[in-house]
Design goal:
It contains 16 helices and 8 strands. The protein has helices at about 20-30, 40-45, 50-60, 70-85, 95-100, 105-125, 140-150, 175-185, 200-205, 225-235, 240-245, 260-265, 275-280, 280-295, 295-310, 315-335, and strands spanning about 10-15, 90-95, 130-135, 160-165, 190-195, 215, 235-240, 270. The structure holds adenine and zinc ion (ZN). Zinc ion binds next to strand 1.
């Protein structure tokens, strides 16, 4: 059975991580940027990661091919088209402006291309999407503040801020000032925590940054007190199972924390993170979980409902999407009962 048609929200996807090797080659040729190979399959063969940093090294290097507004548009449209086919009705999409600024690309080029892709995808595919600006933790708190200041003229083009890149050694406590400023600007706040870093990073993200969602958060399961806080407050955790396997945050999918997280009553959502690098989009992640853990339709419906509950959509829109999930579930149950 396919899970491709569940209506879902994707809340943890880096637009830069959706750069498929086919588009990478097109953009490298378009902009005269050197690659180790111009064969998309050979490039994909290089994607053998041992941890988060081994992935980030290749991911950042590849981003040198993004030069013009048209490049960012093509990247955004390619993801939204693929996501829409996977059942995504709402996407809250991370982007890393500091990487592009370091490559000499001004913010208006990045925003211009991505915002136009989001508008066109809404018009042609009916998918709702917004941007979340991420700070690179390895560049520190002062650089994050500078980036937020530079992004203020574009405040109408993103809905929140996030925190990504190398986790261990760059705790949330380094970013309290920039997150306070983001809050004062009326922006949503999320942060990667508990991917490679321990439960203490999740505590800091909640207590010092005031995040509304935790990205990954899988290592929270090691701390029963933290699990109780997350359950009680129903803090959403945007889990990315295929990413966790590829970056060895979990030894195998069979050993993934997801079943324990669900059993603990946590508000878990399923996401693709960097689908061009980790072997699949949101539907591939759901299919892998279904194969590994034998998830039934009720459990898949819970994950789909959670994704809309955890989104930053207005309540009325959340309810409309959740009604679509319920309708999809009823259709499947009718099919399997032969009615
Ligand atoms: N940037 C892109 N993908 C990431 C991940 N999984 N963790 C931290 N930073 C990232
Ligand atoms: Zn991520």
């Amino acid at each position: 059975m396919t899970v491709a048609n569940w209506p879902v929200a994707e809340l943890h996807v880096h637009i830069e991580g959706t750069l498929e090797t086919e588009l990478l080659v097109v953009l490298a040729r378009r902009n005269d940027v050197a690659l180790p190979s111009y064969d998309p399959d050979a490039l994909r063969e290089l994607y053998r990661f041992t941890d988060l940093q081994s992935f980030l090294d290749i991911y950042y290097a590849n981003l040198a091919v993004l030069r013009t507004e048209a490049d960012f548009y093509d990247l955004g449209m390619a993801y939204l088209t693929r996501a829409s086919a996977a059942g995504v009705r709402r996407a809250e999409i991370f982007f890393d402006p500091q990487t592009h600024l370091a490559n000499g690309i001004p913010l208006d080029v990045v925003f211009g291309g991505l915002t136009r892709a989001l508008a066109d995808a809404r018009a042609t595919l009916g998918i709702s999407a917004d941007l979340i600006l991420c700070f690179l933790r390895h560049l520190g708190g002062a650089a994050a503040l500078q980036t937020l200041d530079a992004a203020v003229p574009f405040l109408d083009q993103f809905i929140g801020v996030g925190l990504d890149s190398a986790e261990v050694g760059f705790p949330p406590s380094l970013f309290t000032e920039v997150f306070a400023r983001a809050k004062a600007l009326g922006l949503h706040r999320v942060a990667h925590a508990g991917e490679e870093g321990g439960p203490d990073y999740v505590h800091e993200a909640l207590d010092l940054l005031g995040v509304e969602r935790v990205d990954h958060g899988i290592r929270a399961i090691e701390d029963p007190g933290l699990v109780e806080i997350l359950r009680e407050r129903q803090v959403p955790l945007t889990v990315c199972p295929l990413s966790n396997v590829c970056l060895r945050a979990t030894p195998t999918l069979a050993e993934h924390a997801l079943p324990a997280m669900l059993a603990a009553g946590l508000l878990v959502t399923i996401n693709s993170d960097d689908p061009a690098y980790f072997g699949g989009y949101i539907d591939d992640n759901l299919s892998a979980l279904q194969r590994e853990f034998g998830l039934d339709n009720q459990q898949l419906a819970t994950l789909a409902r959670n994704s809309f509950r955890a989104s930053f959509l207005p309540e009325a829109e959340k309810r409309r999407h959740i009604a679509d999930v319920d309708e999809h579930l009823e259709g499947l149950l009718r099919l399997t009962s032969g009615a």
